[in-house]
Amino acid sequence: MNAPELIVDGLEVRLPGASAPVVEGVAFTLAPGERAALLGPSGCGKTTTLRTLAGFERAAGGRITLGGRVLAGPGIHVPAHRRGIGYVFQDLALFPHLTVADNVGFGVPRTAAGRRAVDELLALVELDGLRGRLPGQLSGGQQQRVALARALAPGPGLLLLDEPFSSLDATLRDAVLAHTRDVIARTGATTLLVTHDRGEAMAFARQLLVMRAGRIEQAGDPGELYRAPRTRFVATALGAANLLAGEAAGRSARTALGVVDLEREADGAVELCLRPEALALAPADGADAGTARVRVVTRAFRGASTLYAVEGDGLTVEVLAPGDAPWRPGDTAALIVRGAAAVLAATP
Amino acid sequence: MSSRSAAPRRLVGASASAVPVASFVSGALVVLAALALAACGQRSADPAGPLVVYSGRNEAMIAPLVEQFRAAHGVAVEVRYGETAQLAALLLEEGARTPADVFLSQDAGALGALARAGRLAALPQAVLDRVPDPRFRSPDGRWVGTSGRARVLAYDTRALTRAELPTSVRALTEPAWKGRVGWAPTNASFQGFVTAFRLLEGDAAAAAWLRAMKANQPRVYKNNLAIVEALARGEIAVGLVNHYYVHAAAKGRSEPLPVANHHFAKDDPGALINVAGIGVLAGSARPAKAQAFIEFLLGAEAQRHVADETHEYPLVPGAPPPAGLRPIAEVGSPTIDLSRLDALQDTVRLLQRAGIL
Amino acid sequence: MWRARDADPAAWDLLLHPRTLDLFTRTATLAVAVTAVGAVVAVPLAWLTVASDLPGRRLWTVALCLPLAVPSYISGYVLLAAFGDGGLLDRWGWPRPDVYGFSGAVLALTASTFPLMFLSCRAALASQDPSLVEAARALGRPPGLALAAVSWPPLARARGSSGLVVAFYVLSDFGAVSLLQYDTFSRAIYMQLEGAFDRSLAALWSLALVAPALALLVLSAVAARRGPQARAGRAATRRPRPVALGPWTAPALGGCALIVAAAVGLPVAVIGWWAAQGGRGGALLDPALTSLTIAAVTAVVTVVGSLPLGYLAARSPSPAARLLERVSYAAYALPPIVVALSLVSFGIHVASFAYGTLAMLVFAHVVRFGPLALGTSKGGFAALSPRLGEAAASLGRAPLAVATRVALPLLRADLAAGAALVFLSVMKELPATLLLGPIGLDTLPRRIWTAAGDGNFAAAASPALVLIALSSLGVALTLRHERAAEQAA
After folding, report:
1. Phi, then psi, of B137 in degrees rounded to 5
2. A192: helix, strand or coil
3. The domain that contains B304 carries what CATH number?
């Protein structure tokens, strides 16, 4: 399948009854076949963005182009049923009066080719044996797969997923997510997942869009964003973050934890982000004189790793140590900075 | 959901489960269309078209007459049956565009209201002269009576003898009748009687009588027949009704009805004779047919039919009164212009002020 | 309405007359009482026939709808013949309730209107997500209480709209109140129209009747803003297991039987007694077919027409849409004759091409009985997740297909209830048929009216029996769709 490219430019959405726009100035591009995730807290406008892409909401400004075709723009609003965009709803929205096969076949012409497409998808999501069931007779994971198959059946160029895993329990979620990613990869559709779960977003996406208060704060490869967030918001959205002030000069900065390396060049007063795994603890007596001394406040054993909160110089930071790390609350240790710190923008 | 723009005609049919509904609906629509087309052809101002009659009188009585008329004159007739007052309101609402040629009314009041609104055409003198008593036709020749109905006091023959009954309707305000009188203030015949009372005795006297009656706690009924039935059940002792309802209520009963008519004395307002009548709508495209129909209704055969069927008084000289009734000349109806009974508005107001309506 | 402008200035005096206020109070009291009593009767019956294992639920459902098919003058006659002075109980010397005045009017009107609420509540219960009940049970409520807690919102919605319809029916009723001698506003309007041929004053009084009703509607529309919109999802609808009545089965059956006997059995018995007196029958096939066709067509047209408005009312956030919906109820609050006459005026001046045709009559019925279908349509949409429509659209289905393949099947129970209500009402409708129908249109109610007007109750019996029989058939057929929907889900 030739997946199309999605270009969103300056998108603005207003909902009835709200004075301020819910989505403002959102711009991003998804390459053909791209698998992206839109991450943000509830109420940030991510679902509204998705619904506007699908055509359920009207864009108040900006432009949406899919495979060279303008779906929304000044004076243009292609209705949802003419967009050819697949959508998986948070509540799945399966048709309760139709069987599994009829649900999946809903958007497919009743031809031999259509029936074949339904059969293939049912096989793909491993629901072959349940085609005659009604949605009410399925488990949550099965329902989720029906919803995915239904959205994929018409062969959409773009697939939108609105928190489709949120109703699943944690143990099931990873497997379903992997399966979904696998199925989508086989169809080759350009995909955008909306979620508030960073683990889900990073596990699913090749491109990550972090959204805050109706705007995209930062976009890029999930690993890159995790390593080098540009704002405090993105830094905390993607994982635990130790935020500390420093005085930068080139690729290093002086901080309360000593001199640390920087991800990029900076000068003057900066705010830095150090991930807990970029820090390590060492026995206090064997350490260099220049190393910071800290006192262990709390310890959370996680099997493969142990998360410590340590205090030194009035500053509390989190440290991710190996599972067998020996320190107990009250112990004194040396704090070693192993990785480079991300330099955050000066604004909030 | 975006179903708002769904076109109603095609709503059914796409889904397999809706097929029985679809076939049913389309079948029904076809029948409807056929009926509508059939109905369309009959509405026209064509003088050759059928005579259109609005009848406030019951179909059971009128339909055989219409059939006889059609057979005798070869004129097609279409009749819209309804309640007299509702048909009068309909005719007023339709105005000059009415498809009706003739209005057959249960009472003179409705005819008077239509005449006053300029909706009735003048009748030829020859037609009017069929009913010589000037009390039973419109003085300006807009309508003519077809049968007469006397106001009477019907009474429960198990509870009362004729000698115990009053000679005047005024006596019903006496304490002896407290709670024992039935009346139907919403009924047009009753309101016609009150109007006659007003015209004969003056508004003040009528109002005083109504208030005194109200204080005497009469029982209120929907219509005359309900009063007669209430008499038969023993709910009340006497009731103000038209004379033929006793006959009507007796019809089809296995045991004899314990109710009889009592006429008030001559010239008492309670002895009023009102008429059912007929008029031709102004602007009728078929005046000749309309006139023929009226002449037929005033003919001996039709007059006898009405007397037999409804027990109402024929108004054409020579036609005998219904069996068991006093001749109309012996009923002492007060002399009053029945046309003026269309002044019901003031009567209704009077009834409302007295707290009766 | 514009008739009111022409009204005599003196009429305004009358409007300010203390009697007007008195009439208003009496009318309002009656409307409230009938609605309340109706709810007390209808809600348990709806629950029994939907959610319990009551034997013969289908049969009871149809039987409990039938009071709608009994023409009001028959039920009024029955009430008087049974309980009135000189009635059966009186003759047998038994103690009897006082049926004249307020209590009688409440009794008669409740008997003829409770099916309106019954059907709406049934539809609301039938389309309810059973997992909600299970959720409530999981939260520690015993079955009965769980049901009460969870069923309350949809029931309240159903009672809200159908209660409005019942209240408005009471406002517009003339037959029962005049028979039972209880003065209301609509009696006053009739008097103006029928006694005085005064359309202006009747119009003015109609306005006086509708104005407070409309005010109430506006208030309720504002209040409805905070009401629940749609439920989270209807994806996993299963039929719930019927609640076992156990030892309560017998009392439940007894209660149903009592109500059916009073509201249906008695009138049918009386009609049967009339029929036994013997009378000329006359061929009834043609009027029966005509009545059936008109009622069926009107029911379908009304239900289909109610969809956009019901959709808007349930979904649109704008108060204007809700107001529009509420105002459409006004036609139901007016005495039928007033509505018929205003449509005559409209027909002869605006739509003269259709005047005097069946189409005009169907239109009149749709206007008058629209609220019956609107209430159930709105309730259905309110309970339908908007996600389902969006899902269909995202699968490339145009709005029309969304309506036929998703909305209609899922709304079937609600639409069937609406159709049944309209069907039953039209089957026995008289004044509009007489005034607006094609000349000579022969329907069953007209046959009954003609025979009864002639005092020939024996002749009225056979058309009345056919009317009730066909009505039950119609209800049974309509409710089959509800059953089909239940089985599918």
Report:
1. -150, 165
2. strand
3. 3.40.190.10
Contact C129, C237 (CB under 8 A): yes
Give the torsion sign (CA, B94, C170, C4, C194): positive
Residue A347 tokens, joined:
């604004």
CB contact at 8 A, A90 and A162: yes
CA C489 vs CA A99, C237, C416: distances in Å:
10, 6, 16
Q: At what angle do helices B203-215 and B188-201 cross, to 10 degrees?
A: 130
Residue B161, helix vs strand vs coil: coil
Q: Name which of A337, A334, A338, A327 is nearest A293 in CA terms.
A: A334
Tell me: do B139 and B177 sit in the same domain. Answer: no
Give the gap in angstroms from C-alpha B146 to the nearest C-alpha of chain C. Answer: 18
Coil/strand/helix, residue A115:
helix
In Å, how far are B221, C104, C170, C184, C327 from C27, measured between CA atoms?
19, 14, 8, 5, 20
Distance CA C14, CA B352 (A): 9
Tell me, what DSSP letter sits at residue B81? E
Dig out the tokens for B349 from the structure. Answer: 């107001």
Q: How many domains is chain B built from?
A: 2
Residues C376-434 pLDDT 10s:
788 778 777 888 888 888 888 888 888 788 888 888 878 888 888 899 889 888 888 88
Measured between CA atoms, how close is B23 to chain A, in angstroms? 22
Q: Which of C188, C390, C455 sits opposite B357 (nearest CB)?
A: C188
- Whether pTM > 0.90 for this model: the answer is no
Instruction: List the domain range (segments joined by +) for residue B14.
Output: 9-148+274-326
- Are residue B255 and residue B298 in the same domain, yes or no? no
Q: Which helix (H) or strand (E) holds C41?
A: helix C18-51
Beta carbons of C388 and A93 less than 8 Å apart:
yes
Please tell me the distance from the alpha carbon of residue C342 to that of residue A70, in angstroms, as a whole number. 51
Q: How far is CA A242 from the centre of its chain?
A: 21
| Spatial separation of the C-alpha atoms in residues A295 and A276, rounded to whole Å | 16
From C44-58, C142-156, C197-211, the region with the lowest mean pLDDT: C142-156
Phi, psi at A15, each rounded to 5°: -105, 150
Are residues B279 and B144 located together in one domain of the fold? yes
**Partner A contacted by C409 (CB < 8 A):** yes
Q: What average pLDDT is seen over chain C?
A: 75
Phi/psi of residue A164, each to 5°? -70, -15
| Domains parsed from chain A with CATH numbers | 6-84+156-233 (3.40.50.300), 240-344 (2.40.50.140)
Neighbours of chain C (3+ CB pairs under 8 A): A, B
What is the pLDDT confidence band of residue B277, given thresholds at 50, 70 and 90? very high
**Chain A residues closer than 8 Å to C394 by CB:** 54-56, 80-81, 83, 85-87, 107, 151
> CA-based angle C164:C166:C172, to the nearest 5?
105
Instruction: Please report residues of C whose CB lies closer than 8 A to that of B32.
Output: 293-294, 297, 358-359, 362
Q: Distance (Å) from the C-alpha of residue C409 to the closest C-alpha of chain A?
A: 7
Which of C193, C188, C157 lies closest to C172, judged by CA? C188
Hey, what are C411's tokens?
């709304």
Q: Kindly state whether residue B153 falls inside one of the protein's structural domains.
A: yes
Q: What is the ipTM of this complex?
A: 0.79
Chain C contacts of B80, Cβ < 8 Å? 434-435, 439-440
Of C234, C387, C394, the CB nearest to A80: C394
Amino acid at C331: A
Do B220 and C182 form a contact (C-beta atoms < 8 A)?
no
- How far, CA to CA in Å, does B302 sit from each of A15, B83, B247, B319? 76, 22, 19, 10
